[in-house]
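pasting for ref. prot 1 ->
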Amino acid sequence: MTGTAWAAADPVEGKDYTRLQPPEPVAVPGKIEVIEFFGYWCPHCFHLEPKLEPWVKKLPAKVNFRRIPVAWQPAQAPFQQLFFALELLGARSDIHQKVFQAVHVQHVRLDTDAGIAAFAAANGIDKVKLADQMKSFTVAAKMRAANQASPAYQIDGVPTFAINGQFETSPEQAGGEDQALRVADALIQKATVTR
């Protein structure tokens, strides 16, 4: 859906979304940034994913969409490592959904070396390269940056969307997954005007 879905009733600050104070810088100047803060370990993120992917594909060219995996506990860090390692390996676009399926449907332990090796083998990924990337300095640096982004954006739950470093919304705040995507659409339109 586009921002026009909110033509009759604009989302309400403090109810449907929050304004970030202070605003955060965007990664790609000249583009509107949408960040999904998520965790592979999160059942809410898993349930949102089938709606999120088609929404992302319809975003205008002026929007830079990216994901930041969140790890609040040591047990969640392997999922964060896996995300960044797969990203660095240039994994296929469908691999993100396959990770969610492995964790939430197939109950593969992707927080263990054996589970990650089995997942890699099942999905045509070189398990040695994946393991090496997960232990790499680059992945460690990306994890540090992600762990700094969560408090900077005042993230207290996932999934959460940050729009242009100015606004945040989530299915919990907006009242559902579809509503959160509609609020995000409206905030993208608002960001176009204000930034």
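and prot 2 ->
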Amino acid sequence: MADNSIPTSYDPIVQLLEDAADGAHTHGTAIGLVHNDEAHIRTDLVALVGKPAGPGGVPPAVPGFKSLWNVAQTNKSAKTAALRTAQSNARLYARTCIRSLFPVLGESWNANWNAAGFTGGSLAVPANPMTLLQQMRAYYIANPTRESVVQGINCNAATCEATAQALSDAESASNQSNTDAGTAQANYQNGLKGARARLSGLRGELDQLISDDDDRWYAFGFDKPSDPSTPEVPANLTAVPGAPGSKTLIADWDDARRADSYRLRAVTKADGKEVANEIAQDSQLSLTLDKLASGAVVVLTVTARNSAGESQPGNAVEIPVP
């Protein structure tokens, strides 16, 4: 029996919501859907995927939870990178100003450096030098004659303040981006949770309104509960030859319901010897038969696979190796 498990990841959830909304539009009134009708399904769908703008931008576009999370993640990465740059620039600036003070305070730490903010017995610049820059600003205010310009860099109170403020702004922006990303992710996860609950409710409502073998299950994106757990037989297998001498065949077939993957087999028509047994994730496969001579005819068949088992093969196709 098909179990109609509700998917857990974004793409299949959205696809099922789309199918469910279309099914509710077509059949909802006829079968008496109440709690999980088209309007409710589309509300959950729009929450996840958003809504495009109307003509001339009216009404404006509404971004979905997935888009908002994508944007928040991108912004978080950008703001984190900007903070790292601000910290690097601030450390470089601090080291430049430290060297400018060597002639008056000494080239290694001593008690005179306490006045410039180096109270820890070292001239090392911390990873985040904001407080150090603030103390150096105070030193320059108290000792304006020791302000200087080093290779075009102003070592003075105003520039210490500006550098510290730039670092503070970058920290605030980074912290806010972390908060925004966390909020966006929570909204996205709640949107997925709500969509799964909606689909579970629809499945339960359909179970009460239509029979297990009613074909209208398919219109809502579900399998019929009476369907077997194994996949449908894949239909409409076709094959075309690749370039002359390539010994490559390109096979294509229809997607099969409940299939997670497919197995394409090739046997020689002359003696039935299996020459290929390939697994494909999609309903197309390029098959190269190097060991066969050009002109040899092979018979191709394809089966669908999932965790419950493997289907019978669909229609066979005969084709010569190019």
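The domain at 238-320 is CATH 2.60.40.10 (Immunoglobulin-like).
The radius of gyration is 34 Å.
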